[in-house]
Amino acid sequence: MQSKWPLWLGVVAGALAVILALGTGGDSVDQWRLAARWTARTGFLLFILTYCASSLVRLWPNRATKALLRDRRWWGLGFAACHTIHLGAFLTYFRTSGEPIPTGTVIVAGFGYLLLYAMAATSNRAAMQALGRNWKRLHKTGIHYLWFIFAFSYVGRVADPERAVYGVPLFAVAVLAALLRFTAYLKSRRRIA
Fold first, then answer.
1. Mean of pLDDT values over 84-97
2. Contact present, 86 and 16 (Cβ < 8 Å)
3. Contact in structure between 178 and 151 (CB atoms under 8 Å)
């Protein structure tokens, strides 16, 4: 039986990140900047668990990895909930600061949110059956596109001395997650051959 608690974890973690940021930042612009950052990082951790679930089972099948895979839908929905809170914090930051949102961000992130919400809306058996092979295409494209957004955004912080302290480890996690998926893919291909 699947456990829905990862969905609520995403809601609570996102809300707590906002509450902490609003209590920590200096002025309202700084508070919402922190809220946007912290909700993104919180969502990233939930995303990575979702992204790696099937690979972890292929490489190390045990009770914990099988439970993660069994509940992957709920981890994904928890990520979607947390990242919806991130979207609210992000938009509030730009409204509060008066800065325009860069056009590239609107296009790239906007498409990412379209995919995220399409995946969330189709995370059920009825949608799987109705979409057939397109369900897998949507989810595979969506999860890799979201991985790219996270990796690209964190690699941009690696060379910045002020932001490298979190850019380097988060980019490393993204790269390790991709390597894990690739290793699991190679293992499954060897079994077929």
1. 97
2. no
3. yes
Amino acid at 39: T
The pLDDT tens digits for 108-136 are 999 999 999 999 999 999 999 999 999 99
Would you place residue 193 in the very low, low, confident or very high pLDDT band (cuts 50, 70, 90)? low
What distance in Å separates the CA atoms of residue 87 and residue 108, rounded to the nearest whole number? 13
Q: Which of 45, 33, 59, 50 lies closest to 139 in space, CA to CA?
A: 50
Average pLDDT score, the chain: 94
Q: What is the CATH number of the domain that holds 182?
A: 1.20.120
Average the pLDDT over 25-46 and give the result. 95
Number of H helices, E strands in the chain: 8, 0
With a CB cutoff of 8 Å and minimum separation 6, the contacts of 7 are 74, 77, 78, 81
Question: pTM of the full predicted structure?
Answer: 0.93
Q: Other CB atoms closer than 10 Å to residue 134's CB: what's the count?
A: 12
Q: How many domains, the chain? A: 1
Q: Which residues constitute the domain of residue 55?
A: 5-192
The whole-number pLDDT of residue 95 equals: 97
DSSP state at residue 80: H
**What gap in Å lies between CA 178 and CA 151, rounded to an integer?**
10
Amino acid making up residue 10? G
Nearest Cα neighbor of 37 from 153, 188, 185 is 153
Tokens of 56: 């972890």
